Amino acid sequence: MAELKFRRFTLNQRVQHIIFFTTFILLAYTGFPLKFPDEWWSKWMIESVGGFANRTFIHHYAGLLMIGVSVYHVVFHLLEKPRFDVLFNLKDLQDFQQQVKYYFRYTDEHPKFGRYTWKQKFEYFGAGFGAVVMGFTGILMWHPFAAMQYFPIGFIQIANLFHTWEAVLASLAVFIGHFYDEHFGKFPNMSWITGNISEEEMKHEHALEYEEALNNPELRINNNKNAGIDQVPNNVLIVTTKDTAQGESKTDQAPNNILILGLAKMVFTVVFLAICAWMLWISYLVLVEAVNTYIL
């Protein structure tokens, strides 16, 4: 029996992604307690990393690492062959309109996306914009008195506000939006580790790219069990084979796998909802602070 898998991410891209989201989580975990020091969870979170000095060290150097991997990402993709299909175009607007109609049952036709959907483009450029804003404002806030030698104090205060608001916005987008789209609905989504996506996901999420792969004989590798995935160029269709005995064995194990998968998804759901509640509470606190400061 043949199983089709499509290579979505290279090893280089997967390592970049892991470094980026690890530093992002560390920054959120060590940043929000400083913003809300009177909350009960803030004191617990600071103690969990070994105290305030460790919190500061982790926050600063996680920020530097995020800036570093962001710069590397831009330079790497400019030096290699750039992909212009990651840029927004008119089709994204058409896809958005079609998807709204599909969700509200005005049509049965799901939009046909290429390599990147309009939501993925928003997340990608949103992460890039956030990295720039957070990186620049974070460096200013690291040594505010030194920064005041080059910038007026009002500029530093505005940088502080932007740092907080962008942190909240980015955390909402990642912990709720991105997690829901890419992990909750596709649980367990292991493409960030393996680099591959299934044929079913390829057909549903990237139908145009799927059709291109099937219609291009140069992108096909037949029954190549020994080909290293990371040695195969991007967009290559990988075909693996399984014998009948393996298929029967997996059928026998199906009930156990379903039970384990169900338990894992339940745990993930609880954690996901807890993070959502936390992020919404932080958003509420920031909104109240903004209203009290700038309106009342």
Secondary structural class = mainly alpha
Please give the order of strands in the largest beta sheet.
2-1-4-3
Low-confidence stretches: 220-234
CATH class: Mainly Alpha
- Major sheet size, sense and barrel closure: 4 strands, mixed
What is the CA-CA span between the terminal residues?
Answer: 68 Å
Gyration radius from CA atoms, angstroms = 23 Å
In CATH, the homologous superfamily goes by the name Transmembrane di-heme cytochromes, Chain C
What is the second-level CATH architecture?
Up-down Bundle
- Overall number of structural domains: 1
How helical, in percent, are the residues?
55-70%
State mean pLDDT (0 to 100 scale): 83
Descriptive notes:
The chain is mainly α and 296 residues long. It has one domain: Up-down Bundle (Fumarate Reductase Cytochrome B subunit). It is built from twelve helices and four strands, in the order E-H-H-H-H-H-H-H-H-E-H-H-E-E-H-H. The chain has helices at 11-35, 40-48, 52-79, 90-103, 118-142, 144-147, 153-184, 191-194, 199-205, 207-215, 244-252, 254-294, and strands spanning 2-7, 196-198, 220-221, 237-241. Strands 2-1-4-3 form a four-stranded mixed sheet. Helix 1 (11-35) runs antiparallel to helix 3 and helix 9 (199-205) packs across helix 10.
Jot down its keywords.
single chain; 296 residues; mainly alpha; Fumarate Reductase Cytochrome B subunit; 4-stranded mixed β-sheet; 12 helices; 4 strands; 5% strand; globular
Detail the topology: elements first, then pairings.
Elements: E1 2-7, H1 11-35, H2 40-48, H3 52-79, H4 90-103, H5 118-142, H6 144-147, H7 153-184, H8 191-194, E2 196-198, H9 199-205, H10 207-215, E3 220-221, E4 237-241, H11 244-252, H12 254-294
Parallel strand pairs: 3-4
Antiparallel strand pairs: 1-2, 1-4
Helix pairs in contact: 1-2, 1-3, 3-5, 5-7, 7-12, 9-10
